[in-house]
Amino acid sequence: MINIELLAKLCKTAFAAGSKAVETYRKKKLSKEEKELLIAAVQTGEFLLLSVEQLPGTWVRTGSKDFLNHNDPAYAATYLEAFRSLCERGYIIYEGGKLFMLTGSGFKKSRQLAKNVEKK
Questions:
Q1: What is the domain count for the chain?
Q2: What contacts 86, CB < 8 A, 6 or more positions away?
Q3: What angle do CA 45, 51, 57 make, to 5 degrees?
Q4: DSSP one-letter string for 40-99
Q5: Can you give the residue range of the structural domain that contains 14?
Q6: Residue 60 counted as domain residue
Q7: Residue closest to 42 by CA, chosen among 93, 94, 112, 99
Q8: In the predicted model, what is the mean pLDDT of residues 85-110?
Q9: Alpha carbons 16 and 20: distance in angstroms, whole number
Q10: pLDDT tens digits, one per residue of 32-89
């Protein structure tokens, strides 16, 4: 099970850094999974990290979308990794409990990506 407190610290550290390193990292190409997470969160900006005793591992939920596949644990692990990367980029901040939110720059990127999808 993932340690939410450690992930929360990662998000807070990246957000507080506001350094050139974070800006440089943001400019790197987003993975397909990172883009999917940002687009899925475009309406509310909310993310939940969920786990239950009946299922192994932790997964990401945003809106009504669970990034979980009961037949493939690698699916949830891949999206959790993408979520962690978005925290490192400063696009997601920890709010408390299991709740994480898009930052201002996260909303900006999310809306930009969603708009590009609409055009296609």
A1: 1
A2: 34, 37, 38, 92, 106
A3: 110
A4: HTTTT-EEEEE--TTSSS-EEEETTEEE--TT-HHHHHHHHHHHHHHHHTTSEEEEETTE
A5: 4-115
A6: yes
A7: 112
A8: 93
A9: 12
A10: 999 999 999 999 999 999 988 776 688 999 988 999 998 898 999 999 999 999 998 8
Please give the structure tokens belonging to residue 34: 């990172």
Model pLDDT for residues 3-32, shown as the tens digit of each residue: 777 777 777 776 666 655 556 666 688 999
pLDDT of residue 54: 72
| pLDDT the model gives residue 24 | 63
Q: Count the neighbouring beta carbons within 10 Å of the beta carbon of residue 120.
A: 4
Does any domain span residue 120? no
102 token code pair: 């898009």
What is d(CA 21, CA 6) in angstroms, rounded to the nearest whole number?
A: 20
pTM (2 d.p.): 0.81
CA distance 18 to 31: 22
> How many whole angstroms from its chain centre is CA 64?
15
